[in-house]
Amino acid sequence: MRFVPATLAFAIAFKSPLHAQTTPAPRYPCPTRAESKQFDFWIGTWDVTPWQAPNPTPQQKMGVNEVYPILEHCVISENWEGARGGKGKSYNFYDTNVKHWRQIWIADGGTSLDYTGDFSDGAMRFRGWTLDAKGNRVEQKLTFFSVAPDTVRQLFEQSTDDGKTWAPTFDGRYVRRKSAVPSTNRDSQEIALGAALAEQFDQQRGLLPKNDETRKIEAYLQTIADSLGRHARRKLPWTIHYDSHAGLKSGFALPGGHIVIWGGILSYMSTEDEAAAVIAHEIMHIDDGQVSERIAQKIAQQHRDITDPSQWTWNEFGQSYGAVKENLCDYDGAKLTVQAGYSPWAYKTILESFVALGKVHAPAAPPPKAITDRITQIENEIREFHWEALTKTRPLLLPGTGG
Questions:
Q1: 359 and 375 in contact (C-beta within 8 Å)?
Q2: Which domains does the chain have, with CATH numbers?
Q3: How does DSSP classify residue 58?
Q4: Rounded Cα distance, 403 and 400, in Å
């Protein structure tokens, strides 16, 4: 807390017996100060990819940036997490002392930057400088362009010749995630909706009361989910719901951290790492914001109420999110499994199990391209992050199997 000397509180001019008292300054001026709202176009949760790649692959994902106002809208807080590691934060605010915007950035590697700038020509434009490894001054420009309501371009440039020429060092495309509710309420409301839909699922599938074997399998899968959930960005009560139906060979994610695993997919598994791969994939549907986007779309298009579970059904969250987003969940899910100590090769082996079984039923048919593309993706990701040696797996210890 900073002590600020008090101004004269009783400077009132008497021009007549009915004097006019000056209007007191508002306690929280930033929400109504025009300058403090100039950077509001950057507020949101953003997926960041190269600007030159309007249709990026999962491998081109640069990171996720959560940007939100704090201190009664006096500061815009940036929270960056790179796709290949590295985190950073910045505080952005309109400095009433110098009448300019400021950005102060600090990264987990210890580097920091301090910029000054202004909003002009539809963009927030910062300037600053740093020192290179030899102690030479490097001029820097950081510009945020408001391209569209849900698209921002961030261009970082630097000059080593006192600003005569500039070279880009970062050029990112920000695409805002659709959120069903404000971020402060999203988790609690999604958790409540997911819990209600999980109960609806159990009742409609006739899973209650659960028999002893189901409870044991569910508890085992829950230990895997717990180990993965510790590394997820969203801190949710990750909860497994097991349905022993042998004919259904998949899983799906409900709002708020609830994950359904069908019994049929367990028959494809020979290691705990493969179970972790499936669960991590479903976690990423939630952690990457895809479930939230689906909720937001239903609210926008059908005027649903997120607080009224009777307006929602569990099975509408079991539908595919499309090849691009499914592949992204594999890509980010593999990183989650590695963080939890599992082998990324498990993605490859379980996908190859689907291909092998397909050959049994249709020997002459080529394997589905959607599956072979995912196999190729995990092979490329293993090379990209140098995970080739992470081959050690854990046995699958499903209750009742002798494990």
A1: no
A2: 43-176 (2.40.128.20), 183-384 (no CATH)
A3: G
A4: 8
The structure tokens listed for 328 are: 């992204």
Rounded CA-CA distance 338/349 in Å is 15
CA angle 57, 62, 67 (to 5 degrees): 125
pLDDT in tens, 117-141: 999 998 999 999 999 989 999 999 9
**Average pLDDT, stretch 227-231?**
96
Residue 2's pLDDT band, with cuts at 50, 70 and 90, is very low
Name the token pair of 67: 């940007």
pLDDT in tens, 237-278: 999 999 998 877 789 999 999 999 999 999 889 999 999 999
Cβ(267)–Cβ(273) under 8 Å? no
- Residues paired with residue 65 on neighbouring β-strands, in sequence order: 46, 80
| Best CA proximity match to 21, nearest among 36, 32, 11, 8 | 11
Distance CA 290, CA 151 (A): 17
